[in-house]
Write a structure and sequence with these properties.
- This protein has 13 helices and 6 strands.
- It is elongated.
């Protein structure tokens, strides 16, 4: 049974913008055709057990195809990192002499099929060199190559992934990071984390999760994708701090100055007022509990913030935090 058409609106959900262009219409139609093509290969059911799995894979493979055609560098950051770490562009697979980085390769398609099947199955054990994977990848490779010379470049995606892109501030960076972590084809299954990680916010997962390729966090991947950016050093040094307690010691026009009560080495931290809820703005002398993100030599409050009453119970909690962090 063939799926309903994949409409541009659904296709756009995998992109950092909501404006639909003729290019989006093209790739939405391409994803639909890809689904129909895959549905006509009977053995695909031995890998994709549910129709929704086939549909999602076709959208992701089309987004990968768009990435290669547009030269946005998402996939190339992965293969380049594999080459740096392991001396080969892909883990597990033997690469033929006809493998060319930055182009459509059968081996890449095999890897993507294997990765998706692993994520979709209750039993994720599957041999990368499974002959069914190889057979389907070969068919899909020829299907993609039929449009390789005519598929349009996505100029909007090229702008978002301009190698020399900069982010105006942390909020722009965080919005992009959350999209990349939960909605980019590169991280197609991260949205399932929200159902399994209780009491963890979307924002926290985007910063700390290591379920991405090569167990790198999303900030680490963005630093590799935008390695040519004038902000490359800023992106390399983005860091999510652990939940802690902070005492506000002074105030400036744009910042609150605070000491980390759980770490004697972190004094005089500059916390951007812009990142704080104006209705909960702490005053000098108050103690707060929150998570901070280090970005561009300043700190941005992220997630829930609690105002704390200074009492023996709080002092005991802080001592316990210190003890745990010292281990």
């Amino acid at each position: 049974m063939k799926t309903k058409r994949i409409y541009p609106k659904e296709w756009s959900e995998w992109h950092p913008y909501r404006k639909t262009t003729d290019v989006d219409v093209y790739y939405a139609d391409f994803a639909t055709d890809l689904y129909d093509f895959l549905a006509d290969i009977p053995i695909h059911r031995e890998l994709f057990e549910q129709d929704c799995h086939t549909r999602e894979f076709c959208i992701c493979l089309t987004a990968w195809f768009e990435d290669i055609i547009s030269g946005t560098g998402i996939w190339q950051s992965f293969t380049s990192e594999c080459k740096r770490l392991y001396g080969t562009y892909l883990p597990f697979f033997y690469l033929s002499k006809n493998y060319f980085p930055g182009e459509i390769n059968e081996e890449d398609i095999r890897f993507l099929i294997w990765h998706h099947v692993r994520q979709m199955r209750e039993n994720p054990v599957i041999y990368p060199e499974d002959p069914i994977i190889a057979s389907i990848a070969r068919e899909l490779y020829h299907f993609l190559m039929d449009d390789y010379e005519v598929a349009p470049e996505n100029e909007l995606m090229q702008a978002y992934f301009n190698p020399r892109r900069t982010f105006e501030d942390f909020q722009e960076y965080r919005t992009f990071l959350e999209w990349f972590h939960f909605h980019c084809y590169f991280n197609a299954f991260n949205h399932t984390e929200l159902a399994t990680e209780e009491n963890t916010t979307l924002n926290e997962l985007a910063f700390k999760s290591r379920k991405n390729f090569l167990s790198l966090t999303t900030p680490e991947w963005l630093a590799k994708i935008f390695v040519e950016s004038p902000q490359a050093e800023v992106l390399r040094n983005v860091k999510k701090e652990e939940l802690s307690y902070f005492k506000i010691t002074s105030e400036e026009t744009e910042y609150l100055i605070a000491d980390d009560l759980c770490d004697d080495n972190k004094k005089g931290l500059h916390i951007m007022k812009q990142s704080l809820d104006q209705r909960q703005m702490p005053k000098v002398g108050q103690t707060i509990s929150c998570v901070l993100i280090h970005y561009n030599n300043t700190y941005w409050q992220s997630g829930p913030l609690a105002h704390c009453q200074e009492n023996p119970a709080l002092l005991l909690t802080i001592e316990n935090f210190k003890r745990e962090s010292a281990k």
